[in-house]
Amino acid sequence: QESENFWSTYILYMLMTIAIVMYSCASGNEVAYLKTNKVMEVVTTSIKPLPFYLGVTLSIGLTGLIQLVGIVVYQLSGVDLSSLNNLGVTLSPLQPHEIAAFLLLFIGGFLLYSFINTAIASIVNSNDDLTTTLVPVEMLAMVQFFVSIFALQADSTLTMACSYIPFTAPAVMFVRYMIGFAGVGELALSLVILYAAVAVLAVLGARLFSRGVVHYGTMKAFKWKKV
After folding, report:
1. DSSP single-letter state for residue 154
2. From CA 28, how far away is CA 123, in angstroms rounded?
3. How many helices (H) and strands (E) does the chain have?
4. Which residues of 167-185 are buried (b: 16+ CB within 10 A; e: fewer)?
5. How far apart are CA 20 and CA 18, in angstroms?
6. Which of 6, 88, 112, 144 could anchor a disulfide with 171, C-beta 3.0 to 4.6 Å?
7. Is 165 helix (H, G, I), strand (E, B) or coil?
8. Phi and psi torsions of 66, nearest 5°
């Protein structure tokens, strides 16, 4: 009894949220691994912190995107659509503009949380500390998952506001756009805000990264360092 886009939207927004959480945490874990094994000290002598900071984020993000696309293609190729139709589940084919919206929102959401996690990971001294510090970020990333449940059913002030807040915009705006609650103009505005926040976090995160990767004690004084 739902719209044709309902189940496609439901599946894709869940995959988007889970992938953002998983792969942004993987970026933080990679930085923490390199730091705790003293590899960071060697790397930072031959490459500037900003390119390395961006390289770790983008490489894991590309890996995540390839795996996500592979999982979707593999799962859908093995689905018996006739049996799903009998259950009332209709998977509508995605239009090019819907695929573009999914990719742009996913990439923006991943970069946003990955820059936060890698910056945090650069100042911790052990994996136990990293796990503790990343939990609030993961919980924040999951907020969009629950708000999107309401966005699937009806448009409201809450879902509309969350579709423009960078930390919840990826999944919520995607759902609103797919269901028909938001148009191209609203999607474009949300993307501009999201990528502007990504750019700010990239600069701030790189500065924190350059200060934290070579520090192994308690950070009593904080100074920005050129990257």
Report:
1. -
2. 11
3. 9, 0
4. bbbbbbbbbbbbbebbeee
5. 6
6. 144
7. coil
8. -65, -45
* DSSP three-state, residue 146: helix
Give the integer Cα–Cα distance in Å for 41 and 46. Answer: 9
Q: Give per-residue pLDDT as tens, 157-179.
A: 889 999 999 999 999 999 999 88
Q: Two tokens at 2? A: 């739902």
pLDDT score recorded for residue 38: 64
Which burial class, exposed, middle or buried, applies to 225 when counting CB atoms under 10 A from its CB (0-12, 13-18, 19+)?
Answer: middle
Residues 6+ apart with CB under 8 A from 145: 13, 14, 17, 171
* The pair of three-digit structure tokens given for residue 164, joined into one six-digit string: 């423009």
- Taking alpha carbons only, the member of 19, 45, 49, 18 closest to residue 31 is 49
> How far, rounded to the nearest angstrom, does the alpha carbon of residue 17 sit from its chain's CA centroid?
7
| Residue 138 C-beta-side C-alpha neighbours within 13 Å | 15
DSSP class of residue 94 equals P
**Which tokens in the block code for residue 162?**
């969350």
